[in-house]
Amino acid sequence: MWTFFHKLGSPRYFYDLSGRVLPWLGLATAVLLLIGLYWGLVVAPPDYQQGDSYRIMYIHVPSAWMSLFVYMVMAGAAVISLVWKMKLSEVVAANCAPLGASFTAAALVTGMLWGKPMWGTYWVWDARLTSELLLLFLYLGVIGLRNAIEDPRTRARASGVLTLVGVVNIPIIHYSVIWWNTLHQGPTISKFSKPSVDPTMLWPLLIMVVAFMLYFAVVLLMRARCEVLARERNTAWVRQLAAQA
Amino acid sequence: MNQITMATAYIMLLRRDMILAYRNRAEFANPPLFFVLVVSLLPLGIGPDSALLAKVAPGLVWVVALLATLLSLDSIFRSDFEDGALELLLVSPQPIAVLVLAKITAHWLVAGLPLLVFALPLSLMLYLPISALPVLIATLVLGTPVLSLLGAIGVALTVGLRRGGMLLALLVLPLYVPVLIFATSAVQAAATGLPVSGQLAIMSAMLILALILAPLTAAAALRISLN
User: Fold this and answer.
1) For chain A, what are the domain ranges?
2) Quick one: how far is CA B61 from the chain centroid?
3) What is the DSSP letter of B159?
4) Is this complex's ipTM strictly greater than 0.90?
5) Residue numbers in B near A154 (CB within 8 A)
6) What residue spans define the domains of chain B?
7) Using a CB-CB distance cutoff of 8 angstroms, which residues of chain B are in contact with residue A151?
8) pLDDT at B2
9) What percent of chain B has pLDDT over 70?
């Protein structure tokens, strides 16, 4: 178990392993995305109140979940890189920020498009929308700080500290719809109680969530591989790889 | 050699920073001046309607207070970074968090306290109901130290960078939002005669939390920035 983690910390081992896993992950992502989209957009029944426009949920909800999930991954990687100074976790934390920012932007844009027909307005300053917007600013702050610092080690540690300070915002976003009674609906899917979404609509949604997670993993691995190569460009194994290609 | 306790170190550094601020009066007068200028400009832009101004007064005062704090934040570590004093502080035997707390205290006394004083006449000029004034002052007393504390983290992260100014705003302003929300909601509640103890309790909690965690975080960030 521990040797696996120690091995994973070595850039070379990571590069080999991720190269072997990546095609399968990519295939699974594509298949699940296609199934989820077809099921959600075509097979699932229209909503009795919202008609067909609720179908944007199949993009909106997974994006919103991912916006929080990616931040937690980034924060976990930041802790690891600050405490144990593992190079690989620095790479992971660095590449989470742009992905998380895109998921957050996607959640905001789809939410606005969904809000217009349902609420009659693109935007309300309610707790969840505002805190999601703040999350976008946090991601942009992390990206901005990374771009401003040149030294790669300093850059990783400084943006790690900033990431951890921003973690305060995560529970606020998560519980905002419970703490404040606002226009955005409360959670309808929970681990512990019976969901208030009909199974015919719930299953494609869950498939889409898994597909989004896999998509995140695939893109993260691809980006991390690139950065590992760039960071290790002066080592023997990267030279060997380049000579073979 | 005498052993210097943490309390002595704190007081000595605070005294040094206050003397420095007093000798550079003109520079440190700018943020409060900015506060007064912008708050008095806004009614000219919005229009002199007293009902409207009274409604937006808490938000106006607080947003401009945020911006004024942001303007002055850089002074916490910048000049010490430029003349090398900051590195001497980092190698001193005292815990860095205590020294950072002294510098934050100095910043609040120089940049936060004047906002409190000027907020009084300005909010009267914005027709804020007199009954809401004590609450406005209470939110500023509880809130402006949080601004200095959180801001110190941002400055510590950007102090080594050449163009940190715009980046500082991006890093710090999202962290300021909770303070802004609870402060303005307290003042608005007070203006309409509703109870405000809930918001003030949350602001006190934020102050205590920031007081404990922010100096430690800023110290860690300083060590990273200066390597």
Assistant:
1) 51-244
2) 14
3) T
4) no
5) 224-225, 227
6) 6-226
7) 227
8) 61
9) 99
Provide φ and ψ at A193, rounded to 5°. -130, 170
Q: How far apart are CA B172 and CA B150, in angstroms?
A: 7
**Chain A residue numbers touching B173 (CB-CB < 8 A):** 137
Q: Which of A90, A145, A163, A179 to mutate to test the interface with B (most CBs of B within 10 A)?
A: A145
What are the C-alpha distances in Å from B123 to residues B40, B60, B112, B178? 10, 9, 16, 22
**Contact yes or no for A134 and B177 at CB 8 A:** yes
Quote the minimal CA–CA distance from A129 to chain B in Å: 14
Rounded to an integer, the average pLDDT of A206-230 is: 90
Distance CA B144, CA B62 (A): 10
What are the pLDDT digits (tens) for A152-200?
888 888 889 999 988 887 777 777 766 665 566 666 665 455 556 677 7
Q: How many CB atoms lie within 10 A of CB B94?
A: 17
Q: What is the pLDDT of residues A24-55, one digit of tens each?
A: 999 999 999 898 888 888 877 777 777 777 88
C-alpha–C-alpha distance, residues B202 and A179, integer Å: 14
* Helix or strand holding residue A187 (H, E): none
A8-12, long-range: CB < 8 A, 24+ apart: A8/A88, A9/A86, A9/A87, A9/A88, A10/A88, A11/A87, A11/A88, A11/A228, A11/A231, A11/A232, A12/A232, A12/A235, A12/A237
Query: Average model confidence (pLDDT) for chain A?
Result: 83
Two tokens, residue B27: 């520079």
Residue B188 and residue B142: Cα distance in Å, rounded? 16
Sign of CA dihedral B216, B221, B222, B223: positive
- DSSP state, B127? T
